[in-house]
Amino acid sequence: MPGVAFGCGLVNYGTFKSYESGIAGFGRGPLSLPSQLKLSNFSHCFTTITGPKPSTILLDLPANLYSNSRGAVQTTPLIKNPHRPSSYYLSLKGITVGSTRLPVPESEFALRNGTGGTIIDSGTAFTTLPPRVYRLVHHAFVAQLKLPLLSRPSNVTDPFTCFSAPRRAKPVVPKLVLHLEGATMNLPRENYVFEIKEAGNSIICLAIYEFDEKTRIGNFQQQNMHVLYDLKNNKLSFVPARCDKL
């Protein structure tokens, strides 16, 4: 395709050691795929991450995209950050854990100078929170789940909060809701909790951890959710979906 730039790596390292064969840039930058193709919108729908079925990306979608959706379509503004112009920022107002609504103390200065804010990212695996926000979520989850708290299991590499669970049981976990400007992202259980076995024991982990001052909403939290980036109108819409049936 004339005028479309792409790169080919011969010596890859870091993330691209095993399963990944490359990365398609869908950010706001001039070399991103949407920018080069002059798209007015695009969407993705990630299937279950642990499953074998491929996910779908749609480019320049029709206006009636969500006409057959089963759930309520949520829409929130996309915010531009001049210090990180290629990232998609959202306005996160609060987080609910179970019965507790928690504030998200983001300063306007931190958002303006690029050291804070909330980024939605398809290339980051798990959601990360600033330390002070993560501590609020951690304490609320521990208080309401009422299972023994574990130190990091040997087969878990990231610093997740994990609990010991009864064998062959599926304990009810506190709900997790992200409150955005004009929208509510009510996450299903499988989008914020994962379960592993270690020495025959069941372990439940919260698929969120703390990292720097920016909040990142990762792709684990976006499973089976059809997410539409309306680049023309600077809006992000999402709705629950069976992504393997899209």
Mean pLDDT score, rounded? 87
CATH class: Mainly Beta
The total of beta strands comes to 18
Q: Considering the protein shown, what is the CATH homologous superfamily?
A: Acid Proteases
Major sheet: size, sense and barrel closure?
5 strands, antiparallel
* Low-confidence spans: none
Tally of alpha and pi helices: 3
CATH architecture: Beta Barrel
Integer tally of domains:
1
Q: Roughly how many Å is the radius of gyration?
A: 19 Å
Secondary structure category: mainly beta
Give the fraction of residues assigned to helices.
10-25%
Give the CA-based shape: globular
Strand content: 25-35%
Q: Give the strand order of the largest sheet, numbering strands 1, 2, ... along the chain.
A: 2-1-17-18-3
What would the CATH topology be? Cathepsin D, subunit A, domain 1
Separation of the first and last Cα atoms: 27 Å
> What's the order of the H and E elements?
HEEEEEEHEEHEEEEEEEEEE
Mind explaining what this structure looks like?
This protein has helices spanning 33-37, 108-112, 131-145, and strands spanning 41-45, 56-59, 74-77, 89-90, 92-97, 100-103, 118-120, 127-129, 149-150, 161-165, 176-180, 183-187, 193-198, 201-206, 208-210, 215-217, 225-230, 235-240. The chain has one domain (14-245): Acid Proteases (Cathepsin D, subunit A, domain 1), CATH 2.40.70.10. Strand 11 and strand 12 form a beta hairpin. The protein has 246 residues and is mainly beta.
